[in-house]
Known about the structure:
Blueprint: H1 4-26, H2 37-53, E1 58-61, E2 65-69, E3 74-78, E4 82-89, E5 103-110, E6 113-123, H3 124-138
Antiparallel strand pairs: 1-2, 2-3, 4-5, 5-6
Amino acid sequence: MRSVGYAALWSGIWSLFLLIAMMGFTDPAPNVPRDSDWMFWVMVAALLGLLCRAPFVGLVIRSDRVTRRSWLRSTSWPRSDVSLVRTAGYSGMPNWYGESGLFSMVVLTVRGSDVAVPELAGGSRKTDDRLRVVAALLGLPKPSAPGRHRGEPPPP
């Protein structure tokens, strides 16, 4: 399960960086030694690696494990360790890790600790739909107040 919009946004950003790097490499200043070409190839390799990772970013729920695949690493837990699924305001690099009131993301409670899953971010309605699907796949009760943001307590 993944958020196509989230992956598309970041793929666009990585593609833009790649385009800027290629423009800088192919149009150097005249009479400048090109000793630092290796830095271009390192940057291109890193950006292409991120672009190749885009289709795999998200949350994978199998019969015995839950795996969060982010841009740089994957983290996996036994399925039985996930005790709660809820939403929270999106917090990530595009908004300087502040909590968004406009976009939300899925949060898992694993072994008593909250694990944010920004790879399942989006508008409130889509995130609430993803929340219900994740809860059903994990066999957890449906959240009573989906779409709650900014740490607000659920209604009585």
